[in-house]
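Re: [help] complex structure
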Amino acid sequence: MITKWWASEEVWRKIAVWVTAGMLLVLMGLTFDTIPKISVGSERVPAYSIINQRIDYVFDEKRNFQVPVFGGEQPLFGKMLSEEEAEALVTWGKKITQGRNCINCHTLLGNGAYFAPDLTKAWLDPNWVDSDLREGLMINFLMDPPNNSMNSSGRKMPNMDISEEEAKAIIAFLKWMSSIDTNGFPYNFKPVEQEG
Amino acid sequence: MNNGVLDSNNLNGGQKLAVKYFSVAVILFVAQILFGLVTALQYIIPELFFEVLDFSVARTVHINALVIWLLFGFMGAVYWLLEDEAGVETVGLKLGNLAFWVFTLAVTIVVLVYLFVQVGPGDDTTRWLINEGREYIEAPRWADIGIVICILVFFYNAAATFMKGSWSGISGVLILDLVALAGLYLAGMFYTTNISVDQFWWWWVIHLWVEATWEVLVGCIMAWGLIKLLGVRRQIVTTWLYIEVALMFGSGILGLGHHYFWIGTPEYWFTIGGFFSALEPIPLVAMVVHALYDSGVHKFKAANHPAMAWLIAHTFGNFFGAGVFGFMHTLPQINLYTHGTQWSASHGHLSFFGAYATIVIAVFYIAVQQWRGGVWMSGDLPGNGWKWKWSLALLNIGVLGMTMAMLVAGYEQSFIERAIEGSTWSGYFAAQMHPWFIQGMNWRMVFGIVTAAGTVLLVWDLLTIGKGEKRTRQEVS
Ligand code: HEM
Ligand code: HEM
Ligand SMILES: [Fe+2]
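Output below.
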């Protein structure tokens, strides 16, 4: 039996090798392009000191979805931080979220578990009433979630022995995360009332 | 040959090691199901084990047990076919055995720490010793390093054996694929505060495992299985394998972009991710066609009916779970609303079960057949083979039922939480308390119990099938 070229083992082996190599090359190229665009301090992923500023999430006509918008000074817990201080605080906050395994109940940037609300824009959530009450409410909640429950479903966040200092670091991380340009996810979000 | 009893004299060196991996895999599979039941029940009874075994803890064990039992199943499968495919004895088997025990011990410690230590402070010690806090790769860093070393030993066993013996198309693809599989794990082994960069590389591990390297790995197992179970000509199988590799890597590598819509990455990923991931179902259709065609040509005359049935279940499960259910939410226009809802969990269940659990179970059956002395496992089994047939049915109906229940809940969440309420905190709970969601969770529980029943029956069958069987296996050409 004569094998047609399109049924030949040899031909397909070569195609498999070339397709794989080609795709890997393209992926590498895209990675080199993407990583700088999502580095801290880039347009899409702001510097940690953004936590000194007011962050909002506003509809953009041109891009046709909501984007993070930064306003004037709104220092976290009333204290302006240097770039290094901000980085240290956000870093501690993120490490706490990993150590407490938050992602196995919540989603962050939409990835994780589905047992509790998404944290991408938790800093901007209207549940925190307004920008005056927000920080205090967030600290209280994180330090004792079962007794500060904000829903009537019966589902509660467990008490994870979070100290006040730890709560502040977590909030710094959440505030910073809310500044990331996520291409309009979550859609149709209604941010908390803020002054200024 | 000792027919009808489990006797390791029936196995070659690699196979003796393989059945160890399979035994641990089965235990972890059972653990996965138990913890799955707990998490599902916590959706219905939120007080259950509150602040004792919280949802996050149970879920971590559920998904880690899943990843590890599949990995053990794959490693076992490779040790299983190694000597047969290479034509020589396994090289470095002693070291391989040692690695097995180290790996198993490490997994045991990691699970005990998850269960009894659970969490730690926000410092590096926690990530090194307790929990890394990143979904699916929660294992602390020390365990990551242990895993990498064990995988390197495994890789050495496989590569050195083929090098000493003979190479084939299947083993060539397999070895290159294992290099990629092991290398990708490294992409998840570092800390960064920048959560966008964190998730960028995290998806290299998760996506490029399940939608590229694992698919090709099971493609190799499938190719070998078709030769063994049906007697398909090697040249046909190998050619198909190359076609599948081209299609799978051709779509799956850039398909990675469907996870780069909302994590901070640039907008061009909409086009790239949407386009290439939409092509991913094509190789999965090709696999269904291939397996069914071969089975048909060989008049479904197979040396191992349960294994063959599970291989067919694999091709359909892969196509529906990954191909259809993946495609349904892969375009950015729809993923904007489905992202991070029960819709994702629905797809996650059908795909992991359909694509991977099924084929590992098929290999379990191939193994017990040989372990009992290469006994008959075609038609006319005692009791008409009711145990394997019922466990096949219960497991597939159970997982499909859970998938559908979560899909309904996911639709509801997409509309109410994502589209109408805009994913706020109260929007989330509005969706969680909607009757359609609650019904979805209840039905998931019901079908979870069906799945668990199927699992129990499967374990029982694996322990008993072929016991006392005197006939030898059906000859295939
Ligand atoms: C056997 C192969 C596959 C497996 C095991 C698998 C598994 C999963 C899992 C577990 C998730 C959830 C990840 C998380 O926890 O965040 C996921 C997400 C996703 N999968 Fe797959 N998948 C497979 C193939 C596919 C294919 C072929 C497609 C597309 C055609 C696809 C499309 C998606 C998309 C778009 C998401 C993101 C969901 C979201 O935005 O929340 N998957 N997959
Ligand atoms: C008794 C059977 C099972 C039950 C009741 C169950 C239940 C659950 C629950 C409640 C979750 C957490 C979802 C969330 O975060 O809200 C989960 C996650 C998961 N389960 Fe299962 N499960 C079962 C069996 C399985 C099987 C057989 C597989 C695969 C072979 C599987 C794979 C997964 C995966 C991949 C996830 C993560 C999904 C994601 O993040 O999108 N489960 N399961
Ligand atoms: Fe993916």
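Residues A 111; B 135, 210-211, 258, 277, 280-281, 322-323, 326-327, 329-330, 335, 339-340, 344, 347-348, 351-352, 355 surround protoporphyrin IX containing FE (ligand 1) (CB under 6 Å).
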